[in-house]
Amino acid sequence: MTEETKIVSVERVVAAPAEAIFELIADPAQQPRWDGNDNLAEAAPGQRVRAVGDVFVMTNTGDRVRENRIVEFEEGRRIAWMPNPPGEPAPGHLWRWELEPQEGGTLVRHTYDWSGLTDESRFDRARQFTADALRASVDRLAELAEREAA
Fold it and tell me: Which Pfam families is this protein grouped with (predicted)?
């Protein structure tokens, strides 16, 4: 039996500046526009993330509300958060975006890490976030950022 991969990551170069791409990620109200998993329904405006420890609230499809605590942050370059149901501890999974400016665009890396997830009842849902699912978000983000940068 092989060890299950609990860290999934995809990357691609996007023909847009890192700052413009980062704005689409760090403003939760923008996230449903590029969510390739069709998992995010809405987030109230005015929650733009600025530092580790910030929390934004997102409503997922199915009306599930999630608080998302920022655990990594470097303006314009890196952002990661751990979601949890309101008032409950984070179950242990993490979403990360890393941006590296390059000539002609930005290398965008998107990672879903569920290696810290301990509640086995959440494993089936976590397994749905495959490389293809993450790539769909990166591709939608790229399309949006490139169109807005043009």
Answer: Polyketide_cyc2
